[in-house]
Amino acid sequence: MSERHNRRSPYTIDVVLLTQIKGQLDVLLCRAPPPEGREKWALPWETPRNDESLDGAARRIAKAALGAEPGWLEQIAAFGDGKRHPGDFEISVAFGALVAMGTPSPVGGSYAWFPLGDVPQLFPRQRQMLDGAMSMVRSRMDQEPVAFGLLPQMFTLTELQQTYELLLEKRLHKASFRRALQAAWLVEPIDEWRSEGRGRPAQLYRYAPRKRRPAQRGIRLDLAAAR
Amino acid sequence: MSERHNRRSPYTIDVVLLTQIKGQLDVLLCRAPPPEGREKWALPWETPRNDESLDGAARRIAKAALGAEPGWLEQIAAFGDGKRHPGDFEISVAFGALVAMGTPSPVGGSYAWFPLGDVPQLFPRQRQMLDGAMSMVRSRMDQEPVAFGLLPQMFTLTELQQTYELLLEKRLHKASFRRALQAAWLVEPIDEWRSEGRGRPAQLYRYAPRKRRPAQRGIRLDLAAAR
DNA sequence: TCAATAGTGTCTGTTAGACATTATGGA
DNA sequence: TCCATAATGTCTAACAGACACTATTGA
């Protein structure tokens, strides 16, 4: 065997696993995966196996950390630039993934969820990945219905709206949100209701996208304006 | 010196250089950069030098191929998955770049511009990169004013609209386009006109973005609908 | 003069956001 | 009963798209 095809891959795959816990976005971190002193947390990472696709490796690593496969997974970018990484590899390919809220977590063990506002210090390269994951997810929102990756099979429209608000980082108008939702044919009511403390029970919905002709209206040049 | 820090980088940087020629998008290809038989074209690529950032390497490669630096350059993604590449490296990090139309081309030599509809057969991995570049540029359009990267310093509003139409792959309404442009504070008229054959001469503009409060209106959930 | 392109004003149907109202449960 | 939340109807200002019109050049 040639040296080239036998050696371990000269790069790592790192996965940013995101979920929604108590109205906040959380990221899954692992306690110092390779032997690394003191209290240090890191994104799950590994080197890919032989002849494994990038996506495939990312899925495998996510599954190993989480116990289940994430609903949505996409590459963020390659990172390097001399920034430190738990492994000593020149570059790392980062993936972002969304986990349905309520998915049984890797209890105890060396994994834990951290709210985005309260993430411990990471290796600089992984810190970049986390930031990249957030902007990637946010920018994908207007191209695919990403929010459903954070929700369980059944959800209320209020939960769905809260997830959108969490990702967009802004409040949405209830009536407008529901009208837009109806126009987009993304969800379908099911014959079940959930009572949340006081108030009228909310009907449950499920994600059931229907094919549509692409939206006609809108140039939306405003969004492309200067910062 | 350790073997790790002395060896050549185990990955490549590939650059998708795009420009606008005669109302079409063109990509810059290089005639078989490493000794490779027959008539074969490839995206410009190289391995990064020691301690060079990913962006820096991409800029250097772009400049080597083009003679000038591209106005806009951004990472697309890492590609691998066993797809063939002109170099025999496990992965490649691809960058997309926009070149102002009219930039003096690398005349003769081993470089040439190819219209997107008429690209010769590429190495599979580089074909993926080209497709990735296109969808990346298109998806960035509603986040930053990407179109100006394809235009020279001075341009007419009709040229600007044609560039938008080229990138969006659809016709735009003239009056609406100009209204949106005015609202976005992206351009500024200069005291110069250009006569293009018949008709009334068009005023020239230049890119001069002004800071604005983010657009208020629009949930635009439609765009996130099912395909 | 006509032809061709640049640039602008007005109208109309659509819709985001605001507001108000009804519906339905728990305390 | 009062309160809290769900869900929906109506109004209005903003705006995308259509159309028509004026402006200014070359042929």
Could you explain the architecture of this structure?
2 copies of one chain form a homodimer. Chain A starts with a helix and ends in a 20-residue tail after the last strand. Chain A is globular and about 55 Å long. In chain A, strands 1, 2, 3, 4, 5, 6 and 7 form a 7-stranded mixed β-sheet that branches. The first copy, chain A, is built from 5 helices and 10 strands, in the order αββββαβββαβααββ. Chain A has 227 residues and is α+β, with helices and mostly antiparallel strands. At the A-B interface, strand 5 and helix 5 of A face strand 5 and helix 5 of B. Chain A binds a DNA duplex (27 and 27 nucleotides) through residues 156-158, 173-176, 178-180, 195-203, 216-219.
Please sum up the structure shown:
Two copies of one chain form a homodimer. Chain A is α+β, with helices and mostly antiparallel strands and 227 residues long. The first copy, chain A, has helices spanning 3-6, 54-66, 124-140, 157-168, 174-184; strands at residues 11-21, 24-31, 41-42, 45-46, 72-79, 91-98, 111-115, 154-156, 187-194, 202-207.
Entry keywords:
alpha+beta; 227 residues; DNA-binding; seven-stranded mixed β-sheet
